[in-house]
Structure formats: C-alpha cells, structure tokens
From TrEMBL:
It catalyses: (sulfur carrier)-H + L-cysteine = (sulfur carrier)-SH + L-alanine. Its EC number is 2.8.1.7. The lineage of its organism: Archaea, Methanobacteriati, Methanobacteriota, Stenosarchaea group, Methanomicrobia. It comes from the Archaea. It is found in: Cytoplasm. [2Fe-2S] cluster binds at C330. It is an enzyme of class 2 (transferase). Pfam families: Aminotran_5. This is Cysteine desulfurase IscS. Transmembrane segments: none annotated. Belongs to the class-V pyridoxal-phosphate-dependent aminotransferase family. NifS/IscS subfamily. Keywords: 2Fe-2S, Cytoplasm, Iron, Iron-sulfur, Metal-binding, Pyridoxal phosphate, Transferase.
Length: 399
C-alpha cells in the first residue's frame, strides 16, 4: 500500500473473507422486499421461507448431505458448541468420554473444557510435527464410555488437513459419533459426509466469501443430539430464533460458488502461495515453514522467524498496509504462544516468531511481490534490535 494505492494487501483470508458481489446480490432482496418472517402463514412470507430452503439445498449439495440434515445457526463457534455439547448431553447414559485433538479451534477446546467441568472426560490427542492426528491414536483413545470423536478437517493456523475419512471409519467401527469442524476446509477440500463417515460437521459462511454470523451444523439423520437454543420451533424445533434470512441466503449462494471448482481454485491460489513461500525462504535465513508439506490448505503459509516476535512483525507489516496474523498472544494478555505451534513441537522462542499469511480471492501476483519486498526488510529490522539475535546470525539487509 502506498499513498497512491490505499488498498491494503489482505493476506488474512483464514480470519475472514470479503463477500463476493454475487453473494451480496443474492442477499439484497431479503433485506428489503422479502423481509417476511419465514414462520408467518401468509403468502408474503413464503419468499423468505423459500430463500431459506433454497440455501438448505445448496449447503446439502455442497457436502453430499440431505437438505433435512442441514441446520442453520450463527456461525462456526455455535456449530462446534452445538455438536459437542449436544451429543455429550444427549448420550450421557451411554458414556461421558470425548476424544478430540490438541490443535482444535478454541470453539472446540473451550467447549470440551467446559464439559470437563460438568463431569465429562476428554482425551486431547497429540499431533505429529506436521500437525496430523494419527487415526491409530484415535482408535486407542476410544473406550466403551466414548460417545464422540471431534477432529477438525483442516487447521486454521498451519493449514494441515486431517485424514478425516480414516478417522470417521475408526469412530464408526467402534459405534462412536464423529464430528468435524470443517470451517476452514469448506471450499478448499472436497467434502462428502457419506464417504468421510461424518455424523456432524460445522460450517461458517464468512470463511468462504459469505456473510459473518451465518453458519450451519450438518447433523446426520437419526443422530441423538440436544438443542442449545430453546424457544420457538424454527429449524424443525432444533434451533430456536427467527432465522437470519439474508445471512442464510448469502451462506447458501457462497457455498455453491466456493465448491463449484475447488480444484481449479486451489491450483491458482497454491501457485501464488508457493511463490510466496519460495521467495520468503530464499530471502530470510533462519525461517521455517510450519504445517504439512503436502496435506495442507492451498492458501496457507505459516512461518516461524527466529529471534523475533510475531506481534512486532504484524505491527510493522500493518504500517506497510499488509494484513496478516500471528500465533503469538502477548496483546491478548496471555504469555503463551499458539497451542497449535506448541503441539507440533516448536520451542517457545520459535512459536513466538510466527506469521500466518493466508491467500485468497483478494490477492494478485502484485500482492505477492509486495510482501516479498517488504517482509525481509521487516524481519531484518526486528532482528537488528532483538536481544535474542546472536551476533553470528545472518540478517537480511535493511536499507
Ligand atoms: C477452524 C475454525 N473453527 C471455528 C471457527 C469459528 O467460526 P466463527 O467465526 O464463524 O464463529 C473458526 C474461525 O476462525 C475456525 O477457523
Ligand atoms: S512474547 Fe508474544 S506471545 Fe510470547
């Protein structure tokens, strides 16, 4: 970004995405002319009802489900809470044990911790150095008291894709339900709930160019699950509250667009990402790439730069108009760096200097060039002033 071009270089698509014009266009009439309450009986409200049902079909088609198995809610966090608390509470007489992984999103981890405080027991599986869960570990962790396995489809920080189908098979071999948080995977990894043996799957619209505050939980027909939100009879009595009709309509259109050509989209994004990674590794010494070399989201690049601190990197990048993320957490008041980076075995110092760049439809090759121009300078400047930098370290040249 310079004085002539105030557009930021946005490389934080894992945090959220802009909304596609087609999505905004699909939503627009539901803010104005089709404002009826889908539950109302007069004909005027039928447009709203149809908007919701069209979206339900679009979501179902995108993941290989039946429309009746799609339940709209307020986003990925609610879907995760619903899946885990809902299954744990509904199946209490069968058991009180849940198996999950150490690198789940906090919407899963904090939900599991809450359940532990209510008397449930949770196994947090370790991951390997690339962030993969071993299906054999899932099998070993399952006991006759286990009611749910919850392992994310793809990790939001390091982009690692899990062997979801294998984990689903293991869970089902033992008669245990399988939930996956697919918030980061939808639109990037083809999802088929039948083939992958998934019973519950969390989705969030704002990660695939849809609206924020719109999400869904796929619940396989016949699954025993409690509701979290009680009240009216919306969502066939499973999730009360007047529907966010424009949000649901946008969510449906966005998932349809995001899953139309996953392979072609990934090819294009991965080409940019790979050039970015190569350029960074070539120009900044003492750098490592975190996550799986192959089984990773096409748009994700996660680095650790030794001797520097992630939040300082972000501040300097921000001063250059670059939006990115870090796994370090000073500003949030926690002195602990990312649980994901620690779980893949990074020493504390390296986990502190992490940077996540996630590409998407907002990016061009020029953006990659710009980051490749700015980042070595930023890291060089920080290493020069860092007390951690040894005198023998090679520091990128700073003007
Ligand atoms: C893997 C994962 N799960 C859940 C969430 C929460 O989704 P939402 O922001 O829609 O509540 C996120 C969002 O960052 C995520 O990346
Ligand atoms: S110094 Fe920032 S998270 Fe540790």
């Amino acid at each position: 970004m310079n004085d002539l071009d105030p557009r930021p270089v946005y490389m934080d698509h894992a945090a959220t995405t802009f909304m596609k014009p087609e999505v905004i266009a699909a939503m627009a009439p539901y803010f104005s002319e089709h404002f009826g309450n889908p539950s109302s009986l007069y004909r005027f409200a039928a447009e709203s009802r149809q908007g919701v049902e069209t979206a339900r079909r679009q979501v179902a088609a995108a993941i290989g489900a039946n429309p009746g198995e799609i339940n709209f809610c307020a986003g990925g966090s609610e879907a995760d809470n619903w899946a885990i608390k809902g299954v744990a509470l509904a199946n209490r007489e069968r058991g009180n044990h849940i198996v999950t992984s150490a690198i789940e999103h906090h919407a899963v981890l904090h939900t599991c911790e809450w359940l532990e405080r209510q008397g449930f027991s949770v196994t947090y599986l370790p991951v390997d150095e690339f962030g993969r869960v071993d299906p054999a570990d899932v099998e070993e962790a399952i006991t006759d008291r286990t009611t749910l396995v919850s392992v994310m489809a793809a990790n939001n920080e390091i982009g690692t894709i899990q062997p979801v189908a294998e984990i689903g098979r293991v869970a089902h071999d033992h008669g245990v339900l399988f939930h996956t948080d697919a918030v980061q995977a939808v639109g990037a990894v083809p999802i088929d709930v039948e083939r992958m043996e998934i019973d519950l799957l969390s989705l969030s619209g704002h990660k695939f160019y849809g609206p924020k505050g719109a999400g869904a939980l796929y619940i396989r027909e016949g699954t025993r699950i409690e509701s979290l939100i009680h009240g009216g009879g919306q969502e066939r009595g499973r999730r009360a509250g007047t529907e966010n009709v424009p949000g649901i309509v946008g969510f449906g259109r966005a998932i349809e667009l995001a899953t139309a050509d996953i392979e072609g989209h990934n090819r294009c994004i991965a080409a940019m990402r790979d050039r970015l990674v190569r350029g960074i590794l070539a120009s900044i010494p003492d750098t490592r790439v975190n996550g799986h070399p192959k089984e990773r989201l096409a748009n994700n690049a996660n680095f650790s730069f030794r001797y520097v601190e992630g939040e300082s990197i972000l501040l300097l990048l921000d001063a250059h108009g670059i939006c990115a993320s870090t796994g370090s957490a000073c500003s949030s008041g926690s002195s602990e760096p990312s649980h994901v980076l620690l779980a893949i075995g990074l020493p504390h110092e390296e986990a502190h200097g992490s940077l996540r760049l996630t590409l998407g439809d907002a990016n061009t090759e020029d953006d990659v060039d710009y980051v490749l121009e700015v980042l070595p300078e930023v890291i060089g400047r920080l290493r020069k002033i860092s007390p951690l930098t040894p005198s023998c370290a090679r520091i990128p040249e700073v003007d």
